[in-house]
Amino acid sequence: MSSPILQVLNLSKRFGDFSAVNDITFAIKPGEILGLLGPNGAGKTTTIQMLLGLVTPTAGSIHMFGLDLSTHREAILQQVNFSSTYISMPQSLTVEENLWVVARLYGLSEIQRRVDEIVKKLEMEEFRHKVTRKLSSGQMTRLTLAKAFLTEPKILFLDEPTASLDPDIAHKIRALLKEERRSSGLSMLYTSHNMGEMEEMSDRIIFLQRGKIVAEGTAQEIVTRFGQEDLEEVFLKLARESGD
Ligand SMILES: Nc1ncnc2c1ncn2[C@@H]1O[C@H](COP(=O)(O)OP(=O)(O)OP(=O)(O)O)[C@@H](O)[C@H]1O
Ligand SMILES: [Mg+2]
Question: What is the CATH number of the domain that holds 46?
């Protein structure tokens, strides 16, 4: 068995007295897509922010590529990227200019070729010269995905990557993610509130509830374990229990 590309051990985050993430342990193997599932406020985004070094854990450790994030932050983050709605990019720059800024920050070569390639892949030609402030939410999402792909990361953290996309482009993005995984062995951590998408995309799913892992396995294993029809039924059962 190959060693994990990402290893999280006993990770916790408290905000004052409140435990947003409570002692979670998991790993991602090279080329694996791990789905992080859970109700609003379960701790998914907080977990991703810790993996990106944006939020400091209260306890626990994070290793990627065998390196400790707390001591090898730069080396690790050079090989990682993410997409989410909470990214802010300079609003007065155009889409293309923003991609250039990212490429420069990562010290990429052949920038124009890479930018052209990613703009084509994500069908962004129509708005590549638009000022970022004027983008629709789906266009903005595509820009954040383009930013994530541009640097050819080894691990991608995708926090609700298809949330504001129309069904056609969401389908294309899922196909693109699977193709990248197939061709380059990209590993991903993925969150979505679309259960069909979680089943389609995830090799394995971790179910978070109030900061704790309450279920783990393939979508089918989880469905079977909870004696439900599908992932949506499991979600409703667990989420409603958490509201009690
Ligand atoms: N900076 C902060 N200070 C205090 N509480 C916070 C902070 N950031 C997050 N939280 C709390 O931590 C909990 C987990 O939030 P998080 O954003 O990780 O949830 P999530 O699983 O991503 O939810 P969603 O599905 O709504 O995106 C929430 O109760 C949230 O209010
Ligand atoms: Mg979130």
Answer: 3.40.50.300
**What whole-number distance in Å separates Cα of residue 222 and Cα of residue 220?**
5
Residue 214 lies in a domain: yes
Residue with tokens 């990562």: 106
Q: Does residue 124 lie in a domain region?
A: no
- Which among 44, 36, 54, 56 is positioned nearest to 210, based on CA atoms? 44
State how far the Cα of 126 lies from the Cα of 117, in Å rounded to an integer: 14
Give the distance (Å) from ligand 2 centre to CA of residue 41.
7
pLDDT at 238: 85
Does ligand 1 lie within 6 Å of residue 217's CB atom? no
Residue 209 neighbours by CB under 8 Å, 6+ apart: 38, 39, 42, 238, 239, 242
Number of domains, the chain: 1
Nearest CA to ligand 1 atom 12: 20
Q: Is residue 63 part of a domain?
A: yes
Centre of ligand 1 from the C-alpha of residue 46, in Å: 6
Cα distance between the two ends of the chain: 41
Considering the entire predicted model, what is its pTM?
0.93
pLDDT at 86 over 80: no
